[in-house]
What does this fold into?
Amino acid sequence: MADCPIDVAGIGNAIVDVLAHADDAQLGALGLTKGVMTLIDAQQADVLYAKMGPGLECSGGSAANTVAGIAALGGKAAYIGKVKNDQLGQVFRHDLHSQGVTFETAAAAAGPPTARCLIFVTPDAQRTMQTYLGACVELGPDDIDGDLLAAAQVTYLEGYLWDRPEAKAAFRKAATVAHAAGRQVALSLSDPFCVERHRAEFRQLVSEHIDILFANEAEITSLFQTDFDDAIRQLKGHVTVAAVTRGAKGSVVLSGDDVVVQAAEPVAQLVDTTGAGDLYAAGFLYGYTQGRDLAAAARLGGICAAEIISHFGARPAADLAGLVAAAPLLTV
It folds into this structure.
């Protein structure tokens, strides 16, 4: 698949993030469950936004963060996601274009505004996310660009999007198009919240449509409703490749009978875990689509994840390609 003009095409919720520092007492006062993502409506979003401390606004969205990371590494990336033709939608589109990502999905002219995610970051770097999906819920099969996906080595699906029937139909269409063109399909389980809501459907989706699976330890144990070691055993044979992150323990990558255990990269200061899984997927998929072996791909994922958790926000602040080039025993 080296002749593909696109390395990875991501499909997900197009969201603008609003990040602010908070403490456990504030989370309790606001009735928020620490460390997870919760869907909220427009009224709740307004109330919480008014109670947040000083915030940083930046384009986000899980799959969008991943393709932005791939572009930062020098890869060729594209994105499909729904925004409204409003100020935040224009900011989101501009940010992806400026990072070198192809993003041509038509903006909605009417309906809900562009989505936003209110992220409360506690001193232990955990992020508690309150997400108003807005225009994201308008994404459907008609937004799936078949020519774009046929030209991509990997189509990367964001589990957060798996909720409304239209989005599910869009996922299935995307997987069908990609496989018909001889390409691969990847899925991120995204959050334990998503797995709990859609466990049976996710297991069916993985078995029927997914070649490459990304998950963290909490997500994979929730998917199979068992402990980590047993979840890894059950995962074998379901997909071609699975990459499971374990925070400070690094990651475990499976492919057939091959198992790679990759240590986490050192981090000088843990600031904000927002986007850690997204950027791990970026590094891994960049290495994978460049023909690197699983160990090198996992190392690339770890380098990108370590960069993103060392600062506020889920888009790279440092030169990812430079960090990779300077990494010992890793030549790209």
User: Anything to note?
Assistant: The radius of gyration is 18 Å. The CA atoms of residues 11 and 70 lie 14 Å apart. The chain has one domain: 6-13+62-98+139-326. The chain has a mean pLDDT of 93.
